Amino acid sequence: MRRIGDIHTFEDRALQRWMTRASFAVLGATAALSVGLMVALGACAPEALDRPLAGVLGIAPLSWFSLCGWFAAFAVVTFALLAAHELVHAALFKLFAPRGVHITFGANWKVGMLYACAEGVVYTRRQYLVIALGPSVAVTVAVLAGALAAACPVLGVGLAGVHLCGCTGDWYYVRTILSDPAITHCEDTTWGMRLFGAGEDPGADDVDDREAAA
């Protein structure tokens, strides 16, 4: 197996700039969609609008208590989604890893990132794409479904969008993998990931041994 390159997530300034731009783009789209949905529901289906927001639009009496509760729920669930995101990564790491592999969790407070890690496990290209995109899909669907069940669609859109802002690092991994068809395997590390392709290089023996064990 030939080593193609590494991604040092916490040190790569280009990656972090890309993540920042993508996060702001998602945040702007989320704000526009949330406001648009609130106005549209208020005009066409006020019974479907989050009850605390009906008062903001003058459709119902404004309750500051309910509105503060809405924002409190937004804040609490946002933090819960950080944990849910990493748990989905961990579950997928475990699913595709050999039996007995230990999944670890950590944080780099300097750049404000949490992570789940399957140190030393080599995954196929397809497996790593599923692992990287898993939280973007699973958590977003769960948030929207839960918000609809709670009759808070605007809250759901806002939470889903804020969560997706935190998925941009995963998207960068996916973008990198898809941009190079030569990448066939990825190894997860505490500092980022290693990228491999077909072929041999002088430093490949250890990686081949780990993959054989998988």
How widely separated are the two ends? 14 Å
Number of strands: 6
* Total of domains: 1
Largest sheet: 4 strands, antiparallel
Order of helices and strands: EHHHEEEHHHEEH
Q: Mean of residue pLDDT?
A: 90
Beta-strand residue percentage:
15-25%
Shape: elongated
Total helical segments: 7
Radius of gyration: 21 Å
- Main β-sheet, spatial strand arrangement: 1-6-5-4
Describe the structure.
About 60% of the residues lie in helices and about 15% in strands. It is of the alpha+beta class and about 210 residues long. The protein has one domain. Helix 3 (about 65-95) packs across helix 5. It is elongated, with a radius of gyration of 21 Å. The strands form two sheets. A four-stranded antiparallel sheet has the order 1-6-5-4. The protein has helices at about 15-45, 50-55, 65-95, 125-150, 155-165, 170-180, 205-214; strands at about 1-10, 105-110, 115, 120-125, 185-190, 190-195.
Spell out the blueprint of helices and strands.
Layout (H helix, E strand, L loop, with lengths): L1 E7 L4 H32 L6 H6 L7 H33 L7 E5 L4 E5 L4 E3 H25 L3 H13 L2 H12 L3 E7 L2 E6 L7 H9 L1
Antiparallel strand pairs: 1-6, 2-3, 4-5, 5-6
Condensed summary:
The protein has about 210 residues and is an alpha+beta fold. It is built from 7 helices and 6 strands.
Key terms:
214 residues; alpha+beta; 7 helices; 15% strand
